[in-house]
Amino acid sequence: MQTVANFNFSGKKALVRVDFNVPLNERYEITDDTRIKATIPTIQKILKDGGSVILMSHLGRPKDGPTEKYSLKHLVTPLSIVFGIKVKFATDCIGEEAAQLASELQPGEILLLENLRFYKEEEKGDEEFAKKLASLGNVWVNDAFGTAHRAHASTAVMGKFLSDRVSGYVMQAEIDNAKKILEFADRPFTAIMGGSKISDKILIIEQLLDKVDNLIIGGGMTYTFSLAEGGKIGKSISEPDKVDLAKSLLEKAKAKGVNLYMPLDNVVADDFSNSANRQIVDRGEIPDGWEGLDIGPKTIDLFTKIVSESKTILWNGPMGVFEFPNFAKGTNAIADAVVKATEENGAFSLIGGGDSASAINNAGYGDRVSYVSTGGGALLEYMEGKVLPGVAALEA
């Protein structure tokens, strides 16, 4: 695989697939620029070499073509500030305007194309659409690990039409750090799996049972495990049809000698809101009309101790509804513990994108762990052993 580090972009027009799917508020202001910051080294390397950059990305999930809410024009000013030059903008990602702006682009300049997903052909992996995109430049750089598990036109198919295919720094770092976890983990190795559904995490949990010493289960999926143990979960989120699956995971963990830890207690609420009445109950003893929204103090003590003794830590998914401040204590405590293990005990910590990345970044800890992944779904699929189309296209 060619990488940005060993490729000379002098005189090249690099079509760079980035993941600028950033959250915007009602005034179209970026509320979390983590994904943009991650791409800076790749873009700066191309410009420093004497190349020009044509940025391609999606934003949101537009249903019916161009939509103001999902226009990448809202990113032009922030990007111009980040790179210290006026970023040009094409109001379409293909067509005459895009072709002209691309042909006139000079070394050291940046052009941002409009949202790729304004065309249904992008997600369909349409070859003709990919060919039109490819015609705008002469080298394809894929730095969008967050979409590498999708066989879309810009993330995989474009590689067919450009002989120079290059992995960006983000893509390379994601793969390298995932491999470090999967193949070279120091012991004890602890995986922390949160989130609401077992069905979303079943494959990664099964893979990890062959690799980890400790598996910590938190978040909404714990209530399905509680059901499997015959516990009471009130009106907590659960997947009753996955109870047998939960039982089999418990049995597999035991058979493989993995220490599987679940909450000892939960913070429960009588309503799904930050201002709801709260109480702490033991696992499996949630009263009717109440729902679990966070892990309790006994659980925090247990999970923190396990994390503090670990040398490799993978964290994917929050411990509760961390968007509500009153139910963020468990997630924040895990973040604190992971940072402490990293800084004080030299542990390698990989934060697995999505809500876990948001939790770490919101706490101001993004630069105090070993690596924060930009791709939740892509990282999980890579760690499940699946072939990612965006990675395979670079290796072809």
Q: What does this entry look like structurally?
A:
With 396 residues, the chain is an alpha/beta fold. The longest helix has 17 residues, at 329-345. α8 (222-228) crosses α9 and α10 runs parallel beside α11 (329-345). The model has no long low-confidence stretch (mean pLDDT 94). The strands form four sheets. It has a seven-stranded parallel beta sheet with strand order 1-7-6-2-3-5-4, with helices on both faces. A six-stranded parallel beta sheet has the order 11-9-8-16-17-18, with helices on both faces. A three-stranded antiparallel beta sheet has the order 13-12-15. The protein is built from 14 helices and 18 strands.
Summary tags:
seven-stranded parallel β-sheet, 396 residues, six-stranded parallel β-sheet, alpha/beta, 17% strand
Assembly state (oligomeric): single chain
- Tally of helical runs: 14
CA-based shape: elongated
Mean pLDDT: 94
The helix content is 25-40%
Uncertain runs = none
Which structural class matches the secondary elements? alpha/beta
**Spatial sequence of strands, sheet with the most strands:** 1-7-6-2-3-5-4
End-to-end distance, in Å?
A: 8 Å
Please give a quick description of this structure.
This protein is α/β, with parallel strands linked by helices. The chain is 37% helix and 17% strand. It has helices spanning 34-49, 76-83, 96-104, 120-124, 127-134, 169-183, 198-208, 222-228, 243-255, 297-308, 329-345, 354-362, 376-383, 389-395, and strands spanning 2-3, 13-17, 52-56, 88-90, 110-113, 139-142, 165-167, 189-193, 214-217, 232-233, 259-261, 265-269, 278-282, 285-286, 291-295, 312-316, 348-351, 371-372.
